[in-house]
């Protein structure tokens, strides 16, 4: 049996060949399917991609090919599309499709080619804005979200703390670390104009520690002579990054001065003017002069606004020079036991006046002589019964002139060696 189509007005023709009907146009050429790409552009890793093979008839099986048209199909389906829910870079390449039906099987020609260009999704990275490895309680913290891409995309940023969303859409996230904790932060970027998102960053672990204390390295000695080279050293133990160091010296009380409490004693502090630059952790007296005598502490700061460490412990420093006065001790020794008597006096070789006995001891009282001692003209101080708290340093002073300094220790008879830490106090 033979079927003929004689109407020339028909836009398609049906022919019989090998007991099989195929679709063609009026000129008898087989219809070629059209392949198209559906999805968000640009195609980034993790995006969903759909490739559609379009034919204007039904009953077809669809074959999809990648790389070369004569390779094994990556998909064979009655559905005219091939979808990848989360595309990888390796999924990129050239794709074709064709359709087939009947028995024996008939294939349409291959479709047009479609390129799927897959770009690695940009990765967000969280870091501290400053190159620090630790953060302290009370410090202002700024986290930075960086996304490396070509050009300069207008990213809108999202921040997360332990997976919970935080306010703010800028690449910097600033807050104050109000307590000691360990926490994780992540970020990502979004370009709404092209509906593109970066990958969420790896968790950034932020550890917050207690406020540190500056540590002033103790000098091997505290008594120096005019002209000596004296260097004080300060550090923030366990942290070396970003610190500026400032040095302070005790001064007479004034309400505008800062002060510290140490061993129940209050010290008024004045910033040493030539240490304001804060370069490094050392302060050098070169040469040392009488005016440098005093008690020194240090403190470190960093960041904007400035974050300060606690003040260091106090370091007494004595600079002596040639003087017409000398401190006389009776009995003439520096180590004594409790219950013993002691007399101190300032003897002047010339007619200079204004000399007085000075001391730094454990006691808080300030008087012409240590508390419980007897004051006499000269100046002269004496006691009939020494106490361990009388341990300290003693000297004679007139304005900026100093005698030699004597370190006196008083030991209890119950212990062969009992020393007290003493710190200077100026008035």
UniProtKB/TrEMBL annotation:
Pfam families tied to this protein: Ig_2, Ig_3
Cellular component GO terms, alphabetical: external side of plasma membrane
Signal is among the record's keywords: yes
Keyword RNA-binding in annotation: no
GO molecular function annotations of the record: transmembrane signaling receptor activity
Assigned keywords, A-Z: Disulfide bond, Signal
UniProt xrefs under InterPro entries: Ig-like_dom (IPR007110), Ig_Fc_receptor (IPR050488), Ig_sub (IPR003599), Ig_sub2 (IPR003598)
All residue ranges annotated as the Ig-like domain in the record: 33-99, 122-201, 212-312, 316-397
Residues making up the signal peptide according to the UniProt record: 1-18
Domain of life: Eukaryota
GO biological process, one term: immune response
Protein name in UniProt: Fc receptor-like protein 5 isoform X1
Origin species: Clupea harengus
